[in-house]
Amino acid sequence: xxxxxxxxxxxxxxxxxxxxxxxxxxxxxxxxxxxxxxxxxxxxxxxxxxxxxxxxxxxxxxxxxxxxxxxxxxxxxxxxxxxxxxxxxxxxxxxxxxxxxxxxxxxxxxxxxxxxxxxxxxxxxxxxxxxxxxxxxxxxxxxxxxxxxxxxxxxxxxxxxxxxxxxxxxxxxxxxxxxxxxxxxxxxxxxxxxxxxxxxxxxxxxxxxxxxxxxxxxxxxxxxxxxxxxxxxxxxxxxxxxxxxxxxxxxxxxxxxxxxxxxxxxxxxxxxxxxxxxxxxxxxxxxxxxxxxxxxxxxxxxxxxxxxxxxxxxxxxxxxxxxxxxxxxxxxxxxxxxxxxxxxxxxxxxxxxxxxxxxxxxxxxxxxxxxxxxxxxxxxxxxxxxxxxxxxxxxxxxxxxxxxxxxxxxxxxxxxxxxxxxxxxxxxxxxxxxxxxxxxxxxxxxxxxxx
Length: 451
Known about the structure:
By secondary structure, the chain is mostly beta strands. The chain has helices at residues 8-11, 67-84, 109-113, 160-176; strands at 3-6, 47-50, 61-62, 65-66, 88-90, 119-127, 133-141, 146-155, 184-192, 199-206, 213-214, 222-227, 233-238, 245-250, 256-258, 265-271, 277-284, 287-294, 301-302, 310-315, 321-326, 333-338, 345-346, 353-359, 366-372, 374-380, 388-389, 395-401, 407-413, 420-426, 432-435, 440-449. Residues 13-32 have low confidence and may be disordered.
């Protein structure tokens, strides 16, 4: 993988009129207030932002297409990422002004003011002599007529989309104050066929649905894939040989192995934040409890001992605690315990049932499936306070967090359809939209940011 940040001042010949402020400076907008997207509540009016085609200093053919064509495609991917966040409204193609290469660092602010855009992303793409591409990305405050930040990337032509995602992440982070999440991948269960004979395969794709590929062949039913923190392996449940058990899959070699040797039924796997352990639910003598197993193999360590069904464990980001679901109180509820199994206590007390809890990577929230007639996605604090329902479907379940802890993927089954697809919602509960997949999809797991 080649994706290297570069100092853009050295990568582009700056016109004499270009300004070169410190990249992380926060210049004030007109009227003295810094340009910023308010993310504290529902976004009724996303920020208008202009993302014109990125010019090239010299049209060059590359294995991914001409640099002219790539300039247009880069702008499209950046636009799609920012629009999908629900916080930005990219100008329509007919509203965009053409940009020539010398203008990349010297925007026509007066012209852009007439479009209504508050922010402007300009950039360039050029082919290098060693077969790589350089993609430059600049963010401007149109009203203040100032550059806010810039970043550049050197990529293989086949990885030009990653440069676009990195550019979108730079803009998102600068204007919202939130962490990035666009340059990441999702693994999920791809489904096809009639309800009684569904074929389920593991599939991996970029977070926006691009670069999709299958990694199992569908001969065995698979469920609940989860990334390792280093993305080099995946754990999942498979019904191979009609025996439900948890396997580990090495992404590089394609090899897989049992996580727990023996014939016990194991399911609901999830890695610890340091990748050293895998939580599994295991049925022993008819009783289901949560165990942790060394990721490289070894003896399972039992963490829960109640006669109830304890399952769905998820570590806190510092690894000190585990959230899980249990029916020990008579119905599915959410509990938290220390990582060694001590101090088990219930945190959900609302109406209905609670399932599939997963700890936010920021540590401040736990997402869950709430069952009360309908299935919906919600969040609460680790103490059980501030419960909030975010999604609005008939059967929404299986939440998974984006790397920045602000966006949640889940899968939605339409009423009476028996078919599921992937959806996204952010913490406001306002920005809810489908995520494209080639076939039906369920059980998503969002991976960490790519390096």
